[in-house]
Write a structure and sequence with these properties.
It is a single chain. With 324 residues, the protein is α/β, with parallel strands linked by helices. It folds into 2 domains: 3-136 and 291-321, Quinone Oxidoreductase, Chain A, domain 1, CATH 3.90.180; 140-267, NAD(P)-binding Rossmann-like Domain (Rossmann fold, 3-Layer(aba) Sandwich), CATH 3.40.50.720. It is 27% helix and 26% strand. The chain has helices at 52-60, 130-134, 137-150, 167-178, 192-197, 211-214, 228-236, 255-261, 274-285, 302-310; strands at residues 11-16, 27-32, 40-50, 77-84, 96-99, 113-117, 121-123, 158-161, 182-187, 202-205, 218-223, 237-245, 264-267, 295-298, 318-321. Strands 3, 4, 5, 6, 7, 14 and 15 form a 7-stranded mixed beta sheet that branches. A 6-stranded parallel beta sheet has the order 10-9-8-11-12-13, sandwiched between helices. The longest helix is centred in the middle third of the chain and has 14 residues, at 137-150. The two termini are 26 Å apart. 48% of the residues are buried.
């Protein structure tokens, strides 16, 4: 044990699963606390965000990188640095940080401690709680990397955000608006007032309207739905526009249709990104980005959080509260 962690408990509470299955496979366990390696920080986790990647991994019993049970889910972390590994100068014990460490490799955020590379974290936004901070990293970085790094959204462009009241969507609407875009969001009618309050210029009820018949001449579409929605998204784009899918592509992805329409269609996988987190922090602290963490569960009810998430009707993010 390193000298930096001798004062810390040697074990921790964590959510683990031994097999693929329904939310009930998620069990509260006592396990060994990790040690920070060289270039890593050990973070005392106060809250962990819950994402679709989590319940998809749980149900199939395998991470995208091939890791199989037993494992601990979770990527979004907000907490306090408890110790630092050799060579770390960026953070010190006591610093409050947030991040999305190791994605798409296991990070183990549904636990009281996480050890991960220092530069997968940033100082968490002032004025936010740990719950709110934990709702940000994966969803906000996905929105940022899709709109800014991949599509390079410019002032005056027209941007369509599908599932605009969801975890990625509600942040993407605000980031696109901050970039000077005209923003259209799809959501059920009950969520339209929320989208307008976040800056959406136009809203479409996907239950009663066909977006492909309603929306035209988009420069950029961010699509977290996939399937038949990919083809609908293409039909909203002008020639030269960009469709960014944040879901892995399969045989239904309309590559030939996109090429024929003169549209760029790409899959983007979010990556750990300290500079992106710093940009997001600045937006939050300047009052230009608001995060919604509508549903909070205790760590021991991770299964309940998954059951809610899999219904696909939540607004904003689901978060696990781990340390009071």
């Amino acid at each position: 044990m390193s000298q930096a962690t001798t004062h810390l408990p040697t074990t921790m509470r964590a959510i683990s699963q031994d097999a693929a299955g329904a939310p009930e496979v998620l069990k509260l366990t006592e396990t060994r606390r990790p040690e920070p390696a060289r270039g890593e920080v050990l973070v005392r986790v106060h809250a962990a965000g819950v994402n679709p990647a989590d319940w998809k991994t749980r149900s199939r019993g395998e991470f995208a990188t091939g890791v199989k049970p037993p494992f601990t889910l979770g990527y979004d972390v907000s907490g306090v640095v408890a110790a630092v590994g050799d060579g770390v100068t960026l953070f010190q014990p006591g610093d409050e940080v947030y991040g999305m460490p190791r994605f798409p490799h296991p990070a183990g955020a549904y636990a009281e401690y996480v050890a991960a590379p220092t530069r997968h974290f940033a100082r968490r936004p002032q004025g936010l709680t740990h719950i709110e901070s934990a709702a940000l990293p994966l969803a906000a970085l996905t929105a940022w990397q899709a709109l800014v790094d991949t599509a390079d959204v410019r002032p005056g462009q027209r941007v369509l955000i599908h599932a605009a009241a969801g975890g990625v969507g509600h942040l993407a609407v605000q980031i696109a608006k901050d970039r000077g875009a005209w923003v259209v969001g799809t959501a059920s009618a009950a969520k339209h007032d929320l989208l307008r309050s976040l800056g959406a210029d136009e809203v479409v009820d996907y239950r009663s309207q066909d977006v492909a018949e309603t929306v035209r001449d988009m420069d950029v579409v961010v699509d977290p739905i996939g399937g038949a929605n990919w083809s609908r998204s293409l039909r909203t784009l002008r020639p030269g526009g960009t469709l960014v899918s944040i879901l892995p592509l399969d045989g239904t992805f309309p590559r030939a249709e996109a090429e024929a329409a003169g549209v760029r269609a790409v899959f983007m996988l979010v990556e750990p990104d300290q500079q992106g987190l710093r940009e997001i922090t600045e937006l939050v602290e300047d009052g230009r980005l608001r995060v919604i963490a509508e549903n909070v569960f205790p760590l021991e009810d991770a299964a309940g959080a998954h059951r809610l998430g899999e219904r696909g009707r939540t607004t904003g993010k689901i978060v696990l509260s781990i340390a009071s």
